[in-house]
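Technical appendix A lists one of the benchmark inputs used to test multi-chain prediction within the project. The record comprises two sequence entries:
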Amino acid sequence: MEVITSLDNKKIKEYAKLLKKKYRDLNNKFLIEGRHLVLEALKSGYLEEVILTYDEVIPIEVKKTYVTKEVIKKLTNVLSVPDIVGVCKKLEEKEIGDKVIVLDGLQDPGNLGTIIRSAVAFGVDTIVLSNDCVDLYNDKVIRATQGMIFHINIVKRNLLEFLPRIKNEYQIIGTKVTHGIEISDIDLQDKYAFILGNEGQGVKEEVLDLCDCYANILMDDMCESLNVGVASSIIMYELYKKGRKV
Amino acid sequence: MEVITSLDNKKIKEYAKLLKKKYRDLNNKFLIEGRHLVLEALKSGYLEEVILTYDEVIPIEVKKTYVTKEVIKKLTNVLSVPDIVGVCKKLEEKEIGDKVIVLDGLQDPGNLGTIIRSAVAFGVDTIVLSNDCVDLYNDKVIRATQGMIFHINIVKRNLLEFLPRIKNEYQIIGTKVTHGIEISDIDLQDKYAFILGNEGQGVKEEVLDLCDCYANILMDDMCESLNVGVASSIIMYELYKKGRKV
């Protein structure tokens, strides 16, 4: 069996380029790391092939390329080098569901990954990313999703066009730290889009202008605001509980 | 006015050492970055002095050392170099309050910082860190607290000694992903200690053995678990709401 040992191998160099957004966009592919993510990608039909070291034994039917530890290091940004890396095609955008979370300008990859993970935990259908959000296929985003990226519909939209288009059908709820209805008191409609904003600035003014109402989270005055991953998760948790009570 | 321009300046070299845990422990001091954190530290009485560039104008009465941009770079691990860095003495441990969050072996600095921020938002008195938690004064922890580190009592304990000692007085609640009472249904006592665990392994078995009951968060089967910063925050949020209803 062939094992790639050269750091200059052409195929590996091509894959390593997928660590950069530009090449992910160009090839419509992205990398994932570790056994757990590879299995999740396989189940969801997005896995195209794997690159692995001899330490990894994985009984799956997919194209396999064996490499040395030194070579697989080229395919990751983290210090704890994985024994398996998967090459996936980018996720297909599906139709917008009924329970929608909209993220306006989110910048931190850890936050985006955490929100995707919580969204699956709390039964959200669809996540809509504004065009200025951090790249969904950034390796830190993928790691933070813990594989949940393959279990939810995620689409990218210009919010100033998208929100007016769904406004008749969906209840559009914005978040402001100091304004609005407490989240557990919101009179929720069947179809809703809940908007959360950027880490520093929150939801943009022109996006807030498109909302039907505003919500916030009950908390102590001592603290100005919550981490956006936490705030989103608490909101999705409350909406999930409401949905279960009906 | 004197401005330090040399990267070899003795004082700056001493401060730069505080980026390492070993020297923070040795000197009982730590660094904070940016105006917001400096003001929070000042209010709380932990700020000893500041190092700043000429771009920063801050009308506070504390020992000031002016340096160049190149010099202040030595005092941070981040690429976006701050214009002001504060030197603080480490936080004093105070008496354990009534509403306690216990963290068992938490490793990710972002998670610890987020939990501290949420704890202040949701009126927790005291955070107890097990001895094997990530260092509280790690720069990533401090950044993620958004200044809230100065507004809560944080202590470090050997949990296997600490928990038996408070067991008569406090309700000790552990978290397991798949066991226990749903968090909103818990019959909460006046004094409680809520235990959350490590990112990968959760709460240690020997610590779980010391609990009076277990709690979990209502969620969809599709997702195995939540990020620990999110899980902690949802729990603290629910306990805060309960407290407000009484």
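Chain B touches chain A at residues 110, 114, 117-118, 120-123, 144, 146, 148, 151, 184, 217-220, 222-227, 229-230, 233-234, 237, 240-241, 244 (CB under 8 Å). The two ends of chain B are 58 Å apart (CA to CA). Comparable benchmark entries are summarised in Table A2.
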